[in-house]
Amino acid sequence: MRGNVTLAEAIAVAGALPSGQALAGALYRRVDDQWMFAKVFNLKAMEKKGDLHEDPLLHPGDMLFVPKNSFSKIKPFIPYTGLSAAP
Known about the structure:
Radius of gyration: 15 Å
Helix content: 10-25%
Oligomer: single chain
Order of helices and strands: HEEHE
Strand content: 15-25%
């Protein structure tokens, strides 16, 4: 893609999903050679609120993952650090 494209625009260009379907997914962005940033998004929720301020501008190299049907299919791809606060 050329020019500035937001997450919602990229999904729209990729193809429309059936109406009423929850549109959720994950955005992956490389931070450095060893780290990648992952953010879960829900376009239906953004649309419902009428606030697209959370619609990020995509950067070169960004990866979007949008499952065909269920948000639960994203869960295995969300990084889990396993960090916890020890007493």
